[in-house]
């Protein structure tokens, strides 16, 4: 009997979903623990606001997002008759988590001394970004169609190496007894194929091992994980039930800071568009092609609902789909994570988790995802495009390096401008170069890599078109600048235009050497079908 796609009913849960659920669930847990720490300890927000208003709204947004993407995967599986479709992962946008805290909410808190006004500014920031996402969703498919895969995946690899892998890697070696041991537990399962007792998922084993080491070390006076019995007792007292409540008035209350908000909300909304396109392309490379417009508009709608209920963090499709798919995740893991988030956020469990599990035991999962996505850029594109991928990494590395410098100087109570750019240059720290190269790093990496791919393919007209686009984006401050603005880096605009002119001249006048391998084929070498030379 032949089963048609119309009759096919995808399974909502398969054994591999357990691995993906614990892996993705712990990823979400890490991010919620981090944002809770930022709200409580950086912004000094009262627990009533954090646990009573913000986290319940965040939980609602994340539940809507993960359940929607589970439905989208179910729909794709049913349409194609495939049983291996994996749902897109989604959650709080990690880069934006830090941006909205340190660039928007913290400065306003310092100025007004009012954490509620800082919260309101964050809500307005997400409100603006939501509409950028919803509008951009209709042009994203065209952009994805004309942009080489090496450019999209290469820029994504840059994010995975810097902003996803570096911090977890550094934190792991600061507490190696937990971090590296848990990393080994994960690697031998997810890369080495080792199966633990009765099929217990590797992610759960890593958490259990990390918690055992952390609590066990306290018996010998080491306290590797920073966990204490007093902290656990205090966390147990936070149990309760808090549900999200409308915060529309607070959203519009933040419009008094609209000038500060627009400077970052629009460019980071565009960043979200580009990053989501990258992640959809990554999923397509792994075999699951989702409609780009639906993905982007869903992110915008879900983020809008979240901010109207009190959540100051943007929702985004996550990097990492191939990783969850490789470990067996399909549809159920995403929806199950949504249910998990509701439990964590509405019942005060986050505070308990912060006191029970050492964060360093969870970080190896993020490093694993970074490794997988970084390698995918090279594995899923032609080998000859490898130089373009390397070039796509460079702006992200520059942006990451600048962030480290800014953070270090900020901790010392100064800044690069106060120290002096010339003095930094003399020590080998080319701060202004990093600032220009890393401005709009995701989009800049795509432009540079696309130009390189089309040069490699001898399609100089398309390469020139991307160089022209680079000039336009630079002119308006979308790339190679710290903020939107007209002509912030004019020399970069002129440089892109010069590149475009050279490429157009090459298209019209240049004589071309044979591509690698062509010369030998012309002489009958390396081609089994070629006539042997006499």
What does this structure look like?
Residues 519-534 have low confidence and may be disordered. Strands 1-2 form a two-stranded antiparallel ribbon. It has two domains: 16-379, no CATH class; 383-507, no CATH class. The chain contains 24 helices and two strands. Helices cover 70% and strands 1% of the residues. It is mainly α and 534 residues long.
Helical residue percent band: 55-70%
The tally of beta strands, per DSSP, is 2
Q: What is the overall shape? A: globular
Could you describe the largest sheet, including whether it forms a barrel?
Answer: 2 strands, antiparallel
The oligomeric state of the chains shown is: single chain
Question: Which strands sit side by side, in order, in the main sheet?
Answer: 1-2
Helix and strand run = HHEHHHHHHHHHHEHHHHHHHHHHHH
Distance between the termini: 58 Å
Overall pLDDT level: 86
When the domains are counted, the total is 2
**Strand fraction:** under 5%
Poorly predicted sequence stretches spanning 5 or more consecutive residues: 519-534
């Amino acid at each position: 009997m032949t089963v048609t796609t119309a009759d096919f009913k995808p399974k909502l849960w398969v054994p591999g979903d357990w691995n993906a659920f614990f892996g993705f669930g712990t990823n979400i847990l890490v991010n919620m623990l981090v944002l809770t720490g930022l709200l409580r300890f950086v912004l000094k927000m009262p627990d009533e606001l954090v646990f009573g208003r913000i986290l319940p709204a965040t939980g609602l947004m994340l539940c809507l997002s993960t359940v929607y993407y589970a439905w989208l995967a179910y729909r794709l599986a049913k349409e194609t008759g495939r049983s291996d479709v994996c749902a897109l992962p989604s959650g709080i946008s990690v880069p934006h988590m830090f941006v909205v805290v340190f660039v928007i909410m913290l400065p306003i808190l310092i100025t007004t001394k009012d954490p509620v006004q800082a919260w309101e500014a964050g809500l307005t920031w997400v409100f603006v970004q939501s509409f950028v996402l919803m509008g951009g969703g209709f042009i994203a498919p065209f952009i994805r169609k004309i942009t080489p895969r090496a450019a999209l995946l290469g820029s994504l690899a840059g994010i995975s190496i810097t902003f996803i892998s570096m911090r977890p890697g550094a934190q792991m070696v600061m507490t190696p007894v937990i971090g590296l041991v848990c990393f080994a537990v994960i690697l031998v399962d997810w890369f080495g194929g080792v199966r633990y007792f009765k099929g217990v998922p590797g992610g759960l084993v890593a958490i259990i091992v990390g918690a055992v080491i952390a609590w066990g070390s306290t018996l010998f006076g080491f306290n590797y994980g920073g966990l204490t019995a007093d902290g656990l007792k205090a966390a147990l007292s936070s149990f309760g039930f808090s549900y999200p409540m409308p915060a529309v008035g607070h959203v519009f209350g933040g419009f008094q800071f609209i000038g500060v908000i627009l400077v970052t909300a629009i460019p980071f909304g565009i960043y979200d568009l580009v990053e989501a396109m990258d992640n959809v392309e990554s999923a397509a490379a792994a075999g699951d092609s989702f409609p780009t417009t639906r993905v982007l508009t869903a992110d915008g709608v879900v983020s809008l609902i979240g901010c109207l209920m009190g959540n100051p963090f943007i929702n985004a499709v996550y990097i990492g789909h191939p990783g969850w798919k490789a470990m067996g995740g399909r549809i159920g893991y995403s929806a199950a994570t949504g249910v998990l988030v509701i439990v964590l956020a509405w019942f005060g469990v986050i505070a308990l988790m912060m006191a029970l599990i050492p964060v360093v035991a969870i970080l190896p999962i993020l490093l694993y995802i970074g490794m997988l996505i970084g390698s995918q850029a090279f594995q899923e594109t032609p080998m000859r495009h490898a130089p373009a991928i390397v070039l796509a990494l460079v702006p992200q590395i520059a942006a990451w390096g600048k962030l480290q410098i800014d953070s270090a100087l900020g901790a010392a109570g100064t800044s690069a401008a106060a120290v002096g750019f010339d003095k930094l240059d003399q020590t080998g720290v080319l701060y202004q170069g990093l600032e220009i190269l890393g401005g709009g790093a995701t989009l800049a990496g795509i432009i540079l890599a696309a130009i390189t791919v089309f040069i490699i393919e001898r399609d100089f007209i398309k390469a020139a078109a991307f160089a022209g686009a680079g000039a336009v984006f630079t002119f308006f401050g979308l790339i190679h600048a710290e903020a939107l603005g007209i002509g912030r880096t004019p020399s970069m605009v002129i440089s892109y235009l010069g590149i475009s002119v050279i490429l157009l001249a090459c298209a019209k006048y240049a004589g071309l050497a044979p591509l690698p391998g062509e010369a030998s084929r012309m002489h009958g070498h390396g081609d089994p079908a070629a006539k042997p030379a006499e």
